Every structure is written in C-alpha cells, then in structure tokens.
DNA sequence: CCTCAACCTGAGTTCAGTTCAGTTTGGTTC
DNA sequence: GAACCAAACTGAACTGAACTCAGGTTGAGG
C-alpha cells in the first residue's frame, strides 16, 4: 500500500486550476472528446505547460479518479462512524453517497465512465502509480460496504447472504445513477437518493 | 425511429469476422488500448480494408453496441412473453440477462464501458446513425423493464413506486455486474444471477 | 539585488487513425 | 470463354492531437 504524496502546491502552482478545468471538460464533453489543449486554454497557459503538472492527459484523468475515490471513502467513513443500528448505518451511507456538489457529480461521472482504465497496467511510472492507488481505493470502498453488511448480518439485523457479492451489488446500484443523472434533468437528486435508500434497505435487510 | 438496415453480406464479406475480432480485442484489452490495425491483422487483411466495412474505429464500436442492445431487448421479450405472474416475469427477465455466452459477456462489457459515447452527437453520417439507433435502443430496454414494473404495480403484485426510476435502478443493478465480472474470476455467473434475481425481487416486490 | 527552482513557451516529433488513387478478384452476362 | 463490373482490397501519403525538446521567464527567499 504505497500512498501517493500529493505534490505540495507552490504559491503559483496551477495544479488545482488544471484539475478543476479538466473535471469540467472531461465531465461535460467526455475525456476523449475534449482536447488536452482546451484544458490548457481554459486555465490560461500553453499546452506544454500542462506537462509540468501531469505526465499525460491520462495521468490527469487517473488523478481525478483517485481523488474522487478518496473522497467517496472519506465520506462513507464520516457518515457511518456514529451509527449503531446497521439499518441506520446503511441509510446514512446511501444518503452520504448522494450528498454531493455539482463538481462532485462530474467527478463521479468521470470515475464511472473510465473504471476500465484501472484494469490494464500503464507504461509510465506516475500513471501506473495513480492507477494502482485508484485500484486499491476501489477495493477499499468495496470493503467499506461489505464490512457494513457483514456487521449487520452478524448482529442479526440482515439475513445471511454472500456479503461480498451483495456489497458489490449495492455499490453498483448506487453508482449506476451517475451514468445517467444530470443536474438539469427532470429528477432531483433528493428523490433519487430516497428511492435508492429504500431499495438498498429492502435488498439487504428483508 | 429509423432502423438501420444491416448491410447484406456478400459471399466474401469479412464484416462478421471483423466484428468478432473487434469484440475480442475491445473486450479484452479495451477500445482505446487496441490498435485498429491489430483488428485488421487478426482478420487477415490490411488496415485500409477495414474502411470498406466501417467508416471508422468508432463506427465499428457503435455497431457492436447497437447489436448488443438489440440482442438484450430480444432476449428480454423472449424471456417474459410467457409469464403471467409479474414476479415470475421479473425473475425470468433477470435470469435471461445473465444467460449469455462468453462472447456476449465481452459485448456487454464493451457496451457498459462506452455508454457515454451515446450522449454527444457524431461528426459522420453512419456513426451518427448507429449512435442514434443505440440511444433509442437504450430507451427501449429501459421501457421494457419499466413496463414490467408498471404491470406488476397495477396488478397489485408490486407496491406502488416511481416505476421509471425503479426500472432504471433495477437495470443499473443488473448491468453493473459486467464492469467487474470475469469468466476466469472466482464467482460463477450462476451464483451472481441467483443473488441478483433475489435482490431485484426484494427491491421491487417487498 | 541575486539566485535558483518552479514555471512556462514555440518549434518540432510521433503515431494511430484516416484518406487517396488506384489494383485485384470472382461472380454474371452475352 | 471473353468482357464486364461491383465488391474487396492495397501501399503510400496525410492529419491532427498528444507529447518531447531545448531552452527562456518569473518571483520568493536569501
């Protein structure tokens, strides 16, 4: 478990600005559809300056994905740490998953649309480091949900089932929303959150 | 609703061979990671010959996705046409969704990994035609599931809920499996099918 | 004010995808 | 069985976006 040390920002670093611009572009237009030079333009630097911060367009994408995974994990821990009752913990975790800013919606969309990148190994060092870190975080998040189910089953709050498989399924159900959800769409996120919360509880606790 | 007429195969057409090779490559290595020329090699033709059958690499991908969506829809209709009881219809539909060949597993994986392509419009005619057809088929498949739920609710077999949202969720849960499932993995598809079948019934019918 | 690392740039390279300008193949017609 | 022609194919050239290179600029700390 090699953690990536976030490059500490020099006072005139544009790393954060690049990430923000990239999230906007990749999230709205899609990774392939957005030119790397467009991101540079939006930040107000030449294209080659991007390579001072990221080894490649893909390296930037993988960084966005890792950061989003870290965020998801942190929010899960935060949301469930207080709850005693497994059903309440599950509900809190689902609500936390949908308690996100518009920027974070884009990040989740990007993450979901490019999960397949985490399978194959990458050529360059820093890309591969981000990939491995992200892959590990996926497992961490999966373990988060699985552990929640295991605890509930052992306490008798949930019927006994394959916790690993059911955990992945619950997670899959929750994140599948990000493939189609649009803030401008007809369904508000609160409504989605509520329906999915109920669905998860029925899936697990019935 | 403009249906795409499948180019009827001349006796020495390699279209089918190209599609098969492309599904293997795109499914195993990923679309971006596989060189278009590799597909040509595997079929045993020069790279430029590919353009006799597909306008572009992406056009081929979109065709694969459309064909898979058509298949999914057909299987759903086939599986549910006999069933009277809504719960049995739901169970049959889920089982049908996982009753697939290894080739079809790859096709589902490709479809899931590139759903985002269906959002933005395409430059070229034939690509755009495939994209629109695929997008429509996504809606058809969503309607398949939603209608199943509506029927069940009106018959009193399922409690009343937002059928559209719940339908998308059920579908999302089912297809989320294709992101991580590998035939070589530890969990057999039969086991997954069974767990998801139960989960869907509890989600919808409880 | 001097220094040096962080930050940036324009010009050039690469390479996969694609286009072009034809050539081959084999079934059909007379 | 020769002529024809559309489907099938090819090698060479082109394109454009990602990336490299060889330096130039800037500003915070000494």
TrEMBL record, chains A, B:
Entries under Gene3D superfamilies matching the protein: Homeodomain-like, Tetracycline Repressor, domain 2
Instruction: Specify the HTH tetR-type domain's residue ranges.
Output: 12-72
Quote the SUPFAM superfamilies the UniProt record gives. Answer: Homeodomain-like, Tetracyclin repressor-like, C-terminal domain
Q: Which chain positions lie within coiled-coil regions?
A: none
Q: Which domain of life is it from?
A: Bacteria
Report any Pfam family annotated for this entry: TetR_N
Q: Which InterPro entries match?
A: Homeodomain-like_sf (IPR009057), HTH-type_TetR-like_transc_reg (IPR050109), HTH_TetR (IPR001647), KstR2_TetR_C (IPR041490), Tet_transcr_reg_TetR-rel_C_sf (IPR036271)
Record key words, sorted? Coiled coil, DNA-binding
Q: Does the keyword RNA-binding apply?
A: no
Q: Which residues bind DNA?
A: 35-54
Mind telling me which PANTHER family this protein's record contains?
A: HTH-TYPE TRANSCRIPTIONAL REGULATOR RUTR, NUCLEOID OCCLUSION FACTOR SLMA
Name of the protein in its database record: TetR/AcrR family transcriptional regulator
